[in-house]
């Protein structure tokens, strides 16, 4: 059964994606996507009943997979080079050539590494990513069915591009599952590059000038990450003659040796996780259709980076490299939280928040203790569900009103009540007990007690996040003008949103126990003090939510009175004559403090400081 589960998780979505390419009918394609979602969910749950496990399925056996991986190490950069030459993009060309040179050196200039005897390892970390991809990712795919139909109607396309879209979307899920389970560095690298290809194609799907620009930016940045990844793998191959990931994360293997290969892999992970100063490619994802944004931000691309860092974490514990990585992650959490606070574009708020919370997970990996690793995995899982929910909600509201600006989303409780309430729940899950991220942040702060500077950055970043999410929720729930009709919704879009909401609530309740399950035997006593208070907190919070929603429901239907403007009445509605006879017009809006948190200034400063930290990460490993 193990081989069957792994085959369904890795091969089935790729095959289903290829089948979508040949299906021009909407009904048949929808049935295939829904069927694939069911297969992936069932296979992931089935695999969970068998974990932890090791296996060597035929299609991922070391010899077979290694040949395919070697071919991919040339094939993917060659395609990237072709794209770069076609688009005359110097950075894409340069990084593709570097990747080809590294692949050639590894193939012809170094002895082949020892064959990996166990092709697949499914421990707590691998299983967490498989469940995220196969549950959250499939819900996003189901949401994409009605969304893409409306999206193409809005674009007035004569020929649908949905077959290509769903081919890449489903294949993406298969590649991610393969990456999560692979125990060979070269196979892992092949899946890593496959996700780069998928993100490039999905971001450029609409084929507008902005979409192509975003796709190329993601391609060259992630290709740069690929260069760091390949360089680290080659150094490991030269230094140890190994490609077995489980053997490489044994701290005893690195005693007295340079951690430069590990540092290079960590930099590759930071690029993939859109850490400062590499956040630009993830921000570009917001121009893509919402399912793409949700997939990249919650369950796929960015999770590759944090997954790799958490896999390397045992080697980083107590090292200079680990301490610098912790500082880099904590700084991204602070800087990206500040940048999110200065945004009115709802998708940009979600994008910066994603980069911020991934920084928190990377900080956990840098700490490297069992408690920190467990906290990082909890954050990875809860963040995927919560951010997936928020992206689906924002996409649904954007289709309803034609805007994603937070000021235009004011009062969405009256137009799309289900979606607005789900978005409010998701945003509160980012900051309030017991729903979601707070438990993971709590454990992270406990684990970071030996790094005061990191703790301060985490605390300040958390405070900024609270302001950002309270503003987000308050805007959606604010009063609106009368006679606003609810926007139509699709059962296929409402279903994934409500399912994701149930997952967010359930994970918030289960976070402490999930953390305890991830700790090694005998480490459970290291759980942060006070977590036993979560059940009563959960019940109290739920009662408060129920009462609050009832009150909000009454307010959203109430007729708003005209505000008292003061001064003398003016002929224009909503205005008055004030001091010195000036005519003043009433306006309302949130404060974004762009003089402090605006992108123009803050991005440059944060980018420079983050670059210094990453240089210190590599330089410290050299020393």
Cα-based radius of gyration, to the nearest Å: 24 Å
Identify low-pLDDT runs.
Answer: 521-528
- Helix percent reads over 70%
Q: In percent, how much strand structure appears in the residues?
A: under 5%
Quantity of strands, as a count = 5
Which sequence of SSEs, written as H and E, runs from N to C? Answer: HHEHHEHHHHHHHHHHHHHHHHHEEEHH
| Strand neighbour order, sheet with most strands | 3-4-5
Shape category: globular
- Enumerate how many helices there are, as a single number: 23
Q: Roughly what is the average pLDDT, rounded to an integer?
A: 85
| Major β-sheet annotation | 3 strands, antiparallel
Indicate the structural class.
mainly alpha
General description of the model:
- There is one protein chain.
- By secondary structure, the protein is mainly alpha-helical.
- Helices cover 72% and strands 2% of the residues.
- It is built from 23 helices and 5 strands.
- The chain has helices spanning 2-22, 26-50, 62-87, 90-108, 124-155, 162-181, 185-203, 209-240, 245-248, 260-272, 280-283, 290-299, 301-316, 320-341, 346-367, 370-401, 417-429, 437-447, 452-477, 491-518, 534-557, 594-597, 599-622; strands at residues 53-55, 120-122, 568-569, 575-577, 583-585.
- The strands form 2 sheets. Strands 3-4-5 form a 3-stranded antiparallel beta sheet, with no helix packed on it.
- A hairpin with a 5-residue loop joins strand 4 (575-577) and strand 5 (583-585).
- Helix 2 packs antiparallel against helix 5 (124-155) and helix 7 packs antiparallel against helix 8.
- The longest helix has 32 residues, at 124-155.
- It is globular.
- Residues 521-528 have low confidence and may be disordered.
